[in-house]
């Protein structure tokens, strides 16, 4: 039995290397998220730095860090969800998603459970779990949204440019599955 320990250990190390974060782009990532040649440097985003707006509709999504800046590991955006704003119920088949509430209150629904999320609340949604959120309060809610691996930020960009085709594009190219329709736009 002891002679198999080095073989098993070697196999586990090889498996870990194959599925390590450095290889995340091999699992459905867009090629544009792969790192460029040369060493990476730290990314710093200051509060007063210009932000790239992505997405569309009544809510605001600002890209803070793209997959190109994280070697495809994740992207981070800040969202302001206005009263009545919501995401349709959906499933990400490729990404894990984390939400950190900065201000306001949002109702989150995930896997059949409701969570009232106020400032300081963190919610993690594993890939494959149906979820949505809505702002039923009378004030804006602000949150950070992190998705890993990156790539879905490109859908937000495309959806902002062509909201009428956001659902079809998300389902065809980005592994999104929508359970509800998008909210009506004013």
Automatic annotation (TrEMBL):
Q: Does the keyword Lipid metabolism apply?
A: no
Q: Which keywords are on file for this protein?
A: Signal
What is the annotated signal peptide range for this record? Answer: 1-24
Could you tell me which InterPro entries the record lists for this protein? Answer: Cupin_2, QDO-like, RmlC-like_jellyroll, RmlC_Cupin_sf
Cupin type-2 domain residues: 79-145
Q: Does the keyword Isomerase apply?
A: no
Recorded protein name is Cupin type-2 domain-containing protein
